[in-house]
Structures are given as C-alpha cells and as structure tokens.
C-alpha cells in the first residue's frame, strides 16, 4: 500500500481580498459604444488628471497586499459571482458606476441594477427570449440546434456582464495586461466548458430538462471552432483558460478565419479535404465590434523627410484593408474574471471602387472588395511546416498591425509616458508567425510617435517575448527579402537597420568572426535573400522560451546556439501544460466525479496539485474497481461512436491503443502501423488455442495530413488498407481491430482520450518539441508507450519510468545512427520488419504504388526518422504492454499513479511560470459580491466614499 499523504500538503491558502477599492469609473473603453474609427495619425491624448491619480494609488495597494498574503504562489483563484448567487433568494446587484451625468446614471442604473438570475425561471426565460427575439423562431417549436443557439446566447449574456465589469475594472486600475499573439487558437466547443467554468452546468441542465431539452444533446449541436492545426493552436486555447482562471489580465489576439482547418473524410482509404465553413450556422459566442476597426496598409513606398533636423520616414500609398474586431469572452474557472479573445476579420476599405463603378465596370469594382476579404478567409493547414506564400505574410501582418494598434490605443487611453509601456503590456509571440508585430511596433514608435531609435528599441525589447515550438528546419520561417520589400517596404528598411546595429555589436564582440556573424544575421544571404524570422524574434525579445526541458536544451545547443552564447540569460524553459478543466472535468465527467469523491472536494479542478492525494488509492481494491468501471463506460461510448462513424464494431474487453495527432513522418505513425502488421501476421501464424491467449487490441489512429504532404497521406492510406484486411479476417476475429478515426479534432479528442488505455508518443528523439496530448492522456489514466522525446521526458520524471513503456534511441544517439544509416553502414533489416515490408509490397493491404517509395527508402537505409532502427525496441516495449495488461491490478495501479502525479502538466503551472519570469504580471481578481448584503465589495467602498 502506498504511503498515505496528508491532504493538507496540497492545500492552498486563499488570498486575502484587497481591502480598499478605488472608484469604479466608466471610461471610454472597447466596452462602450461609438469608438471612432482610429486613425493611424491620431494624436496622443492626455488622460483625465483625476483618473491618473486614482490609478497610481490603488494598483500599488492591491499589488502590495497580494504579495504579502501569497508570497509563494502569487496567482491564485477566487470564487465566482455565480457561486455567490447560487441559493440566494434576492438578485445580485451590479456595481454602482460613477457617471459624470448623474441624472442619466440614475436612469440607466435602475434599468441595469442586477445581474441576470441563475434560477430556473430566469434561465428558461432568457433562453426562450433568445429563441423568439434573437433567432426569430417560434417559442413552441424549436429544434435542438435552435435551442443550442438560444442557450449559447443566454450564456453569452451572463458572460458579458463579467466581461464588461472585468474590463472596466482593469481599465480603471490601469493594470498590466498580457497579450498573447497567435495565428491559431484551437478552442474546441465552448458551451460545456463555459457552463463548467462559471459553475452553472447543473442549473442549465435542470432548466433545459424542465422544458424538454437534454443539455448533452445540445453540446453535440455545437460546431468545433477549429482555428488551428494542432498542438500550437490548442496550447494557445489552454493558455487562455488558465490565464482567466488565474485572474491574469490577458487578451488573446488572432484571426477570425472564415474557414478553419479542413474537414477530413476518407474515401477508398484516401484522405479528402472538405472546407470547414464553421460560421454557416452563426457563432453565438462572439460579439462583432463594428466600432473597433483599423486601416491596414500593404505595398506602397517610403518617403524620407526632415523634421527638426532629424531624418524621418513615412510609409505611403499602396492599398488599404480594414481590420474589424470580433470578441469572444473567455471565462475563468470559478472566478468572476472574464478575459477576452479578439479576432480580426478583413474588410475592404470602401465597399466599391467608385471609379470603376462609374465607368460601368461593375465586376472589377467588386474585385478589390473580394481581395480584401480573402486575407482572413482561410487558415493555412500546415502543421510544423511553412509555405512562404504571399497571402500568409499578408495574414501575419494584417493581424499584427491591427493588434499592435489596438494595444497602443488601450495604453494611450490611460498613460502618457511611453516609458511606462513595458509596465502595462507584455506581448507574447506564439512562434515566429506574429514576428512582424515587433517591427510594426517599432515602426509606429519611430515613424508615428517620433521616438528616437534607442528609446523605441528599449520599449520594444522590454515588452516582447517569443516562444519557439520546433527545431524542424522546414518549420523555421524565413521570408524572401523581395517579398517583404514589396509588401511592407518600410518594415524591410527597419529589419535592415536592426540587423545593421546588431551586426556592428557582434563584430565588436567577436572581431573577424564572419562565420558567427553570418549565422546570427537576420538575413540569410544567397540568390534569393531571406529574412530569418526566428533570429528577428530573438533579437526583439527580452525572453525566449522552449516548450519542454529537452527542447529548450536543444534550441540552446543547436539552432540558437550562437544566440545562447551571446545572450546567456535570454533563452529559458517553460514546459507546456493543458487545462484540467477541459481535459479532465469536461471530457471525463465520471473520472472527475470519482476524483472529487476521493478527495472530498472539487478544489483540485483549479489546483491540480491536489490530485497527488489519489496516490493513497492506488492499491485500494474498491477504488480500482470504480476506476475500471469508468474506463469501461468511456470505452463503450467510444465504441458506439466508432461504429457510427467508421462502421466497425469493436470489442469492449480489448486494450484500446490510441495514436491521435497530426500525421507527420517524425511522429512515426508509420512505425505504429508497421508494428500492427507484424502483430497481425504473428496472430495469423498462431493456432486457435494460442490466439486465445493473445491480449486483444483495438488500435486507433487518427489525424489530419497537410493537403500537400504526400508521404503523410500515403500513411493514412496504408492504415486504412490494413484496417480493411484485419477487421474482416475471420481468423483474427476480435483479437485485433484497426481503426483510422476520421476528422480528428478537439471534440473527437474529448471522446477518444478518456477511453484510451495505451497511447503512443513515439516521435524520433529530439524531434517533438513537447507534445501536449501526452499530458491529457496521463490525466485520463492512460499509460504511455513513448520515446524519450519532448515532454515525455518530464512525464517519466514525474510518474516514474517504471509506469511507462519507454523505448528507442535517445537524443544523443540519433545523429550517429542517422549518419551510419545514410553512409550505408546500417545493420540488415530486422527479419520481422522485412516480412512486414514484403507483405505490404505484395499488395496484401491494397494499392502499393503510393506507399512504395517510402518502404523502398527504409529498405535502402534512407531512414531519416529511424523507424528501422527503433523497431526492435518498439516490439519489446509492446510485448511488455501486453504482459502488464494481463495483470489488471498492476495496470490500473500504474494508471492511478499517473493521474496522481500529473499536476506538473496543468497549464496553470505553465502560466504561473510565464507570469513570474517573463511577463512580470500580477493577478488582478475582480472583487466578488459581498456575501450578506449581496452587493459587490467595490461598489460598497464607493458608496462609503460618496457619503
Ligand atoms: C508544436 C510542436 C509540439 C508542441 C506544440 C506546442 C508547432 C510548430 N509546434 O510538440 O510540434 O507540443 O507546438 O508547443 O506546431
């Protein structure tokens, strides 16, 4: 029996509430209507003098008090207003605002005095009101989809109350905000997550049940907003959840693509791509902001002029496109705070080109409108690779420029000294995709705000930071100098200038070391000169981070070696994490309930450290049985889903072995399916009596291939071919089933992960920066078969290598092995693997032509990803999996230990680290309602001050 741990060890103290609160003044924020179209040439306006004073005093106090009460973990959560309302009889009052026009204030105040209720009647009324007044449907007959939409609108209403109060509170306090710039946010469905975060799932479920609707069915009506490819975009979504939960003032910024990642369908075993127009049914979660709109310039030329003896530049001409904001509220778990995700859509600057129109050329007058709208039409479907297309650079600049302008506008509302900027804003670049934001920021400071270079550079450098997500050469972005020069001429000049100053410094530090200078230069010389975006990001940022310990070490030693030598304190590690709200609580409600029962409270959902206590149950028979039952129920749910989508019946008592991620050669789905073939051939050779002894397996592989990635598509075809043969082989029966799960996406992951027992994270060592699904699987009691790569290394440190199935070459060995293979020194192909190759090439699993070149290369030793090299140790690890699974007690003990030791991989921990060492930002909890008087605390302070 594992030694009992005290529950207290994980307990956290709640932070004290700030005692004195400032006035709460309505300012002209994005929450107020009628913000004029901002003009890039707008002057900086001085804030109101009273406002300036107020800001200073209050924020200092709040910060001081927080530091005192909670030295170790400055960022923690509080209760939400929704909890305060639960069970209360009187409606909760909204805060009292100070309007300059008291009369008007009184009237508005009396109209908007209370929050929307959370009792059954209020919820029902708000839903049917939306059915009739928003959707214009009849109240007596609306579909599940209509009900989903109306329910979403009613939830959005409640979120907006918090959203407004949160933003006004932040504005009044002039707090420092984090801005997370990302070209991808892979949010997944929002309804269940929202209901759970604001603790209203039960209320809504009952309210809906009472009028004849089933909440779980409504969940299935929501489309996945899939504005991302894979891990990078999903990480951004987990970060948004943690930022809000930890009460960090933070905004996500990105693009509102009309088409998210394509839908994958399988026809004759091949992947086909179908456009995902996710907005066709409307999007009830967003708020269009027609008043938040910025002009964005492309092309044109730069003009030099002199002003007060200083040479200045101005970017002129070209084409203007407008960026319009769409906001999605991001509620935190169990907090009153509600952050924002602002996504930009492109629009034409003018509806028509009137000149052409008047000349009678109607069609070409619409052309420019279409060209403008095209910018935010579609997400590029590449994961870990870049295409270098002009439209992609346009997308990047479009969203960066709008974002930087928006951030600056917010800053200028309350501040007049540019030196304060780094104390008010931290901009995080999610990979190099938003790199041009740094140059745009510099351009605005120098050309428009007329700051001198040194000052502007300092402000830029102290506010920006950059996360690297890959060492794969094909994913390291470079843009042709010619293209940047054409599209963004002023930015190209500035990039050359940055490089010029930097090269001077390098030359001073390392005189004559031209090799080093060449490596560190922002420009890769050659026939087609390129700008290295990663180098640009490193230079412009005060901090750079990798996403797992091994990955950070690798970037320090390889791709960014010179920069690490030059700036030894700049590159640091921030191991990724995932949100336990979506990935345990929502995805696996039964497991969540069991954990809550065992721990005797649900605090662990916001403080995952608490699951450590589960270790006490690792050998508890009764608990293990409940654990097994839950997994079984999740497997049944998945089996039903697979029968529905794939048409194959899979047994429940088999081991569910899952590999779901983008299809990529470095992730080695190929090695997985080669092993499956080997397993199939082995079972086929057995006598019926021996087959009885085999541990039955269902192997599930899912993931999308980039549309132009032929080898990845060939692997999908092979998996489907193997499934066709194996699943219909009577000799094999239920001992082996092979499923390609189509259209893998966030909602599919929420069904697949809780049902998995074994999951595969088998990339060639050194190639997967982190991986994040590995963390989700562990949190759902799934065991890992994996290589020592990415975050697997840290997972093994936490859960213990003995509780995983680790195999394969280590990162230190990879280069040698690869060199040997490519020089022809390799050992002969493993005989089992040769047999697998032979069976594939003989056509057993369908058309050979598409897979032939890949198999041929492996046989020739051209095996960059070391599939043939790692195959033997992979088979051994798989044998160990079977042996362990036979001992169900042991297997489940390992599973429970995994969950109990998974706390490190909560994105709350990751975000706390970013806050502390990169962003230097404090949490700012919005005051919660007063328990007895049911009036929000800061309104009370204001009333006291008024009297
Ligand atoms: C991906 C890595 C993953 C990592 C995620 C999130 C890119 C460029 N990189 O290993 O491949 O988990 O980023 O950090 O998409």
TrEMBL record:
CDD domains hit by this protein: GT35_Glycogen_Phosphorylase (cd04300)
Reaction catalyzed: [(1->4)-alpha-D-glucosyl](n) + phosphate = [(1->4)-alpha-D-glucosyl](n-1) + alpha-D-glucose 1-phosphate
Residues with PTM N6-(pyridoxal phosphate)lysine: 776
Annotated Basic and acidic residues bias: 42-72
UniProt cofactor(s): pyridoxal 5'-phosphate
Signal peptide start-end: none
InterPro entries named in the record: Glycg_phsphrylas, Glyco_trans_35, Pyridoxal_P_attach_site
Protein name: Alpha-1,4 glucan phosphorylase
Organism the protein comes from: Euplotes crassus
Lineage: Eukaryota, Sar, Alveolata, Ciliophora, Intramacronucleata
